[in-house]
């Protein structure tokens, strides 16, 4: 079914979304968002007029304050064009180990983000709430690390320090984009010593980030999840070979 793709081609001043943001509009549904409330509503209305009238291309620059009564104060240039599908970058593989309070909070925050393809791992099916993400049940989670993509990010927050250590050991023998481990400075000092005794070099061990989250936000599971998610969606988090969570 034909759709209209709306692209933010240029911005100036305070605006809801950056240049390059896209959304698709069909007669009966939408996918993606260019943000901005009234801006998006007007853009969708124009897209559906184009579908009705058979037009395939349109562009305009919209000053958000004068034209739409929005308080942003900037301007947005939009391009409407016929499209069969919207090209989006592949989702980042994210493996989360542990379905406890912090694991659940993390999935609640990360799952709605289109940039991540989540695989959630724990030792028992009864530990998971109802969810749309991919679930893996493994009595020994470390044994399934070999199935993870080599460019995946991993967040380790199980109920067991021994499972956490085994996962760190398995990941250092595998490969990864980034690893974040929940725990205190004391826990991490012990883990570094034990991982070194298992034969891992300091340079490799240091690729694991511990503790995770933003200490200034506190230790509530939701606060930890917010800190981790904020670190992971920053552009620089994908440009380095270390999970900054």
Automatic annotation (TrEMBL):
Pfam families: XdhC_C, XdhC_CoxI
Boundaries of every XdhC Rossmann domain copy: 94-229
Highest taxon of source: Bacteria
Domain XdhC- CoxI: 4-56
Protein's recorded name: Xanthine dehydrogenase accessory protein XdhC
